């Protein structure tokens, strides 16, 4: 069976949750579009149908600034005539609009050039064991309740210290997404997930001495969120800790990326080993599969089946079955990140990553952040990165940063307005520690990452 089993309809009625009925409706639309595409002569076709709902509230200085409620939907159809491809989309579910969408996709396909890499993923790769991952937890959040939470979060932060005279505000968000992907191989896959968040940003000090920082919490269920007062106080602590920064001393030092910014290093790796960058020859990691990029102890695993994972899935954006697998093992890059199109362009096979990666976990080899700092001696803890100074082709890395100066194995004082620079290949090879302080707020899960030596450019 290659479609998720419906929950008990009696249970749905009792809880007021009509998500499965709405998925049924989207699946029916997908089936009708595929039939129309076949009737129009398409060799292959695929349809993605989605529906999203959300509530977002923003407050600042005790006043409501924004209150938004949204309900969006979209239908995207792609048809294939041999190696010719055409796509069209609509948000109108009337029959005449669906018919026009098929006509537009077919017309586009008939005027495109032949591409031998175009087409659906191979039918034998389609997922058959379709599961849910405890990712559907609707929150019956009324606007008044959301406003109260945001106000309480901001107030708790502002009350923490008289130096917190200003605020960039607090926000509460709650939303859900339903999607159906179907193709002419007979595959039909359903997904549903929710996402809830609460955040606060505060400003400490006055005039030119002002410093801004914040904190947020995010989860697929409301009970996964930190308490509003806790988020506000954490934001206050972070903003206060940045007061009276000094300039960093220019030189070469160990650089510790805190967990929330360390995942940006994973993002650079993912971009460099993704199929699009590789077949376009726009990556500093061309022909790197099977080569050692990291220390012997370093590993990254893809875990698509994590309960309540932010990117857990039984299938990728093409219906291909996902699987647990290493991306990096014993420091060696095991594979690329490919969908079927990029795989064909490279003469390889899809890695079930059409649409992106599914929960990457970096293995730690050290204790928490404090223990890593204790062993650093002198260096920099980076808690914020600015700018886009990364060259995807050469791997050259140069970004503005802020954080804290480490002296004698402890935090000495805040620093800002400095630049850290290096080359990503050398940075990857120079990783000395990954902390156990994993930031759970992303599908890229890592603790703090210590790079043994980077160039730090400051005025000190």
Automatic annotation (TrEMBL):
Metalloprotease TldD/E central domain span: 137-243
Superkingdom classification of source: Bacteria
GO cellular component: cytosol
Domain Metalloprotease TldD/E C-terminal residue range list: 250-458
InterPro entries: Metalloprtase-TldD/E_C, Metalloprtase-TldD/E_cen_dom, Metalloprtase-TldD/E_N, PmbA, TldD/PmbA_N, TldD/PmbA_sf
A Pfam family hit: PmbA_TldD_1st
Start and end residues of each Metalloprotease TldD/E N-terminal domain: 45-109
Family as reported in the entry's similarity comment: Belongs to the peptidase U62 family.
Protein name: Peptidase PmbA
Origin species: Lysobacter defluvii IMMIB APB-9 = DSM 18482
């Amino acid at each position: 069976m290659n479609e998720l089993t419906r929950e008990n309809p009696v249970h749905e009625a009792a809880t007021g949750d009509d998500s499965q009925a709405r998925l049924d409706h989207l699946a029916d639309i997908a089936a009708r579009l595929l039939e129309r595409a076949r009737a129009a002569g398409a060799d292959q076709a695929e349809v993605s149908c989605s529906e999203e709902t959300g509530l977002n509230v923003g407050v600042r200085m005790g006043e409501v600034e924004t209150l938004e409620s949204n309900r969006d939907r979209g239908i995207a159809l792609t048809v294939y005539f041999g190696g010719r491809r055409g796509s069209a989309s609509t948000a109108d579910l009337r029959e005449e609009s669906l018919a026009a969408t098929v006509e537009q996709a077919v017309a586009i396909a008939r005027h495109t050039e032949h591409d031998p890499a175009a087409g659906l993923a191979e039918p034998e790769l389609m997922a058959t064991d379709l599961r849910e991952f405890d990712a559907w937890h609707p929150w019956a959040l009324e606007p008044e309740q959301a406003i109260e939470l945001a106000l309480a979060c901001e107030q708790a932060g502002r009350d923490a210290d008289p130096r917190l005279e200003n605020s960039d505000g607090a926000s509460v968000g709650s939303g859900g997404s339903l999607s159906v992907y179907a193709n002419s191989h007979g595959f039909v896959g359903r997904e549903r997930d929710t996402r809830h968040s609460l955040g606060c940003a505060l400003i400490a000090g006055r005039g030119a001495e002002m410093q801004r920082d914040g904190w947020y919490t995010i989860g697929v269920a409301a009970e996964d969120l930190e308490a509003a007062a806790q988020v506000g106080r954490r934001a206050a602590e972070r903003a206060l800790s940045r007061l009276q920064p000094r300039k960093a001393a220019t030189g070469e030092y160990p650089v510790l990326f805190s967990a929330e910014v360390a995942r940006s290093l994973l993002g650079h790796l993912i971009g460099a080993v993704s199929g699009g960058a590789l077949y376009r020859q726009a990556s500093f990691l061309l022909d790197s599969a099977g080569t050692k990029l990291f220390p012997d102890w370093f590993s990254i695993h893809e875990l698509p089946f994590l309960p309540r994972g932010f990117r857990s899935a039984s299938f990728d954006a093409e219906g291909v079955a996902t699987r647990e697998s290493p991306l990096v093992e014993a420091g060696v890059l095991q594979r690329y990140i490919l969908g079927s199109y990029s795989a064909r362009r490279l003469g390889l096979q899809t890695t079930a990553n059409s649409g992106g990666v599914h929960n990457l976990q970096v293995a730690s080899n050290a204790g928490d952040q404090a223990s890593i700092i204790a062993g650093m001696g002198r260096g920099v803890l980076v808690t914020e990165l600015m700018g886009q100074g990364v060259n995807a082709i050469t791997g050259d890395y140069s970004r503005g940063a802020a954080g804290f100066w480490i002296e004698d194995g402890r935090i000495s004082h805040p620093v800002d307005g400095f630049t850290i620079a290096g080359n990503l290949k050398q940075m990857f090879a120079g990783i000395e520690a990954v902390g156990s302080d994993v930031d759970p707020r992303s599908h890229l899960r890592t603790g703090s990452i210590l790079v043994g030596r980077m160039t730090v450019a400051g005025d000190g």
